[in-house]
Design goal:
The complex is a heterotrimer. By secondary structure, chain A is mainly alpha-helical. Chain B is an all-alpha fold. The longest helix of chain B is centred in the last third of the chain and has 36 residues. Chain B is globular. By secondary structure, chain C is mainly α. Chain C has one domain: Orthogonal Bundle (Helix Hairpins). The longest helix of chain C has 31 residues. Chains B and C meet through α5, α6 and α9 of B and α1, α2 and α4 of C.
Chain lengths: 160, 505, 115
């Protein structure tokens, strides 16, 4: 698979950064405007999907390999859990917003929500990595006919 | 101290589930160690928290606007049952799952399912119940399809479609309740329903809940997914599915919503009794003719779930229509005790079938025979479990079935008691068939080389067999007040749940 | 009145999930059912002439309470959409694997388990 024509490749090369930036904007202002971790993570995954469609999957897998995707996935979830347990450790209540209770920020600014910002970032990491992995894995599988007449599903990328 | 331990019941399995893929790609044995350690620590915490009755608010938010976790008698009993069976299943699967690839993914999904079930039995908020229900269900869809063979994929697809319809109906019911009362907290909903008029919206919500949770619990009009899903899954997953998942997600949630939140009326009680009696009869008569060992056990699960729903429904009906209080408490005690017993002996039976499959490679009863001299430990534990499920004294199944029969007589419904005795008899018949074909008889040529199962699997079997034998002792008055009566009281309290929760806030 | 339309959408999804023969169409029916329930949940929070529940610079909490629609069902629906995404992904992965093993997408031929 070698991707699409030169026009698509050029436009993608300019556009993917803006999509990524828009996704980060939606994540960071999740407590001030609609959005947050889920929506921002989906948009970031979309930028990688655009890259896959335009350039082909070998190119994308060189940028973000499957192993890095799995590691990001687990790290995002663990970061969310660490944030929740942080409230447990310092104050005794699960999931409490410790940063807001100890160092409250001014309203309507970026830092006004305490641990919600970190939770949003963790969720977006997990959602983006998961959607990217789902897209790549469901699209690299192809069904071929092997020698004994039955069908077999092969995966193009070998992971250890 | 307690407030530190309660969130750990959900946080430890979740942390373990996401930590295992990070470290286990290179070092394979770490997955076993982390998985077993996680379930063991959750079991220890559940036993330590057994006497605690409290309301825990997440995030420190005020209890009327935030999510609360409520621990009362019924939740504590369910927590101990879930954690015990999951610990035994992880012990068993350390060696059983060697035959499958990617064992660390199995542990990750398994711990997610345990976290979901712990959340379902602890929560005091309706939408939180739905979220944890979905976590446990989606993990179980993936686990049923774990091996990748024909039967497993087909069974997993059927299970997924039916159980998703069930979850969607549950969400619809929750939406109706939110529209009717404006709260999501179980205690606040209960109070709002008491003080407001009883609208038809509530009846519609109850119908949706019964169908939705009934699909999860595999009660009779909604049971077709269970005979395909439970045999096709790997043996420790069958034990978990049949042993705790259909109880925590189906029976616990249904009874919690019907008894404590909406309040039981004679009509709901009669519906529960009908569904229970149908499940008992249909399950056992379809089970007798099966030749596949695990499929037979799956049909028996449907029938035993019918026992539990019959007991609890009978108690609710007597309470709501103003009958004898003592008969109602006895019926609910029988139902809950049978739920606990069934977890133990049904998991033991599925693990025995896994052990047989590991050694002989087959599940069909006609191909086995004469395993008694080759696998003595498996045969002993299988005999104990079969006698328990058939209701032979002094094993634990006998006591709970006796209590349900006594309650049916005392409440004035002798025909229900006669039905229960008939179903017990047919259960005994089908298990005599199992024992005769699997263990007695002569050993066929192809099975001459079998040996006993490896050590960890046998330890798991022996632990559960010890529980089977000793759980009859839970009816001694001292132990009963400590362990079983709080659970019965929590359900029989009905809508007094709201006052109890408000008093603890 | 609009709630009845949500119910009609739910029944359409249920019909599709129960009677179609192609397993991908069954998954689409499941998705339609879940989205019908999400729509119902969002519509529960509607208030006549309400504004979106975003607190702005100059407004205080009392005006916010008096004028905005209910934000709680919107939070519930975000969670529910993500749960639906997870279930749909798992179902499609199962469909792909089923096609590899059985060679067809037709559910009346995927019937090896009997009894």
């Amino acid at each position: 698979m070698n991707g699409m024509t030169v026009i698509v490749k050029t436009v993608t090369r300019w556009l993917k950064v803006f999509i990524f930036l828009y996704g980060i904007y939606i994540i960071i202002t999740g407590h001030l405007a609609p959005g947050g971790g889920f929506a921002g993570g989906v948009i970031i995954a979309c930028s990688y999907m655009l890259l896959t469609l335009a350039y082909g999957k070998e190119f994308t897998l060189k940028r973000l390999s499957l192993r890095a995707g799995h590691h990001l996935d687990s790290s995002g979830a663990l970061l969310f859990l660490v944030v929740a347990l942080f409230g447990l450790g310092s104050g005794g209540i699960f999931f409490a917003n410790v940063l807001q209770n100890r160092y409250p920020g001014a309203k309507f600014t970026l830092l006004s929500s305490g641990t919600i910002l970190i939770s949003n970032i963790a969720i977006s990491l997990k959602v983006a990595a998961s959607l990217f992995l789902i897209f790549i894995i469901l699209s690299v599988l192809r069904i071929v006919l092997v020698e004994d007449g039955s069908q077999k599903m092969i995966q193009e990328e070998e992971e250890e | 101290m307690n407030t530190l331990l309660i969130p750990l019941l959900v946080a430890i399995p979740l942390g373990g589930a996401f930590f295992i893929p990070l470290v286990s790609r290179k070092v394979r044995v770490l997955a076993d160690i982390i998985g077993n350690l996680a379930t063991l620590s959750v079991l220890v915490i559940a036993v330590l928290l057994f006497q605690v009755r409290t309301v825990y608010s997440i995030g420190g938010w005020n209890a009327s606007v935030g999510i609360t976790w409520v621990l009362d008698g019924f939740s504590n009993l369910m927590l101990v049952i879930i954690c015990l069976i999951s610990f035994v299943a992880t012990l068993f699967s350390s060696q059983y799952m060697e035959r499958y690839t990617a064992k660390y993914k199995f542990y990750s999904l398994f711990l997610l399912m345990v976290a979901g079930m712990n959340g379902v039995v602890m929560t005091g908020d309706m939408f939180n119940l739905f979220v944890f229900l979905e976590i446990a269900s989606v993990a179980s869809y993936a686990l049923v399809a774990f091996g990748g063979n024909h039967e497993e994929l087909e069974a997993a697809f059927k299970y997924l479609v039916l159980a998703s319809i069930g979850s969607t109906l549950v969400l619809f019911g929750i939406a109706f309740i939110y529209g009717a009362t404006g709260y999501l907290n179980m205690a606040s909903i209960s109070q709002a329903i008491r003080t407001g008029p009883r609208t038809p919206i509530l009846t519609l919500a109850v119908v949706f809940f019964t169908v939705g949770f009934g699909i999860k619990a595999a009660l009779v009009p909604f049971h077709p997914w269970l005979p395909d899903a439970h045999p096709s899954a790997p043996a420790p997953i069958s034990a978990m599915l049949s042993g705790v998942l259909i109880k925590a997600l189906g029976i616990y949630a249904l009874t919690r919503v019907l008894f404590n939140v909406i309040g039981i009326t004679p009509i709901y009680g009669a519906v529960l009794i009908t569904i229970g009696a149908l499940s008992m009869v249909v399950g056992v008569f379809l089970a007798v003719g099966q030749w596949d060992f695990k499929r037979l056990l799956a049909y028996h699960s449907i029938s035993q779930m019918g026992y539990v729903v019959l007991g609890i429904g009978l108690g609710g009906y007597i309470l709501a229509s103003g009958g004898k209080q003592s008969a109602a408490m006895l019926a609910i005690l029988g139902g809950i005790f049978h739920l606990a017993n069934h977890s133990v002996f049904k998991s033991l039976l599925f693990l025995v079938s896994g052990s047989i499959e590991y050694s002989t490679g087959t599940r069909q009863l006609k191909e086995m025979g004469g395993l008694l001299e080759k696998m003595p430990l498996t045969r002993a534990t299988c005999t104990i479990a079969s006698l328990s499920i058939a209701g032979v004294p002094p094993f634990n199944g006998f006591w709970s079935k006796l209590i349900i029969i006594m309650a049916a007589f005392q409440g004035g419904y002798p025909w229900l008691a006669a039905l229960t005795i008939l179903v017990s008899f047919v259960t005994l018949l089908s298990f005599i068939k199992v024992l005769r074909y699997a263990f007695l008889g002569h050993l066929p040529e192809s099975l001459k080389a079998v040996r006993e199962s490896p050590a960890l699997m046998s330890i798991a079997l022996v632990v559960l067999a010890i529980f089977c034998t000793c759980m009859g002792l839970l009816l001694i008055p001292g132990a009963r007040e400590m362990i079983l009566d709080p659970a019965v009281g929590a359900l029989a309290n009905g809508v007094g749940y709201a006052q109890a929760v408000l008093a603890l806030r | 009145m609009v709630y009845a339309l949500c119910f009609v959408l739910f029944v359409i999804g249920l019909y599709c999930a129960l009677t179609k023969k192609n397993i991908v169409k069954i998954v689409i029916g499941l998705t339609i059912m879940e989205y019908a329930v999400n729509l119902f949940l969002v519509l529960l929070g509607y208030r006549k002439d309400g504004v979106a529940p975003i607190v702005e610079e100059g407004a205080g909490p009392l005006e916010f309470l008096a004028r905005s629609v209910d934000p709680l069902p919107q939070a519930l629906v975000v969670t529910s959409i993500v749960i639906g995404l997870g279930v749909t992904t798992l179902a499609i992965a199962l469909c792909v694997r089923l096609y590899e093993k059985y060679g067809t997408f037709d559910i009346s031929e995927i019937r090896r388990l009997k009894g």
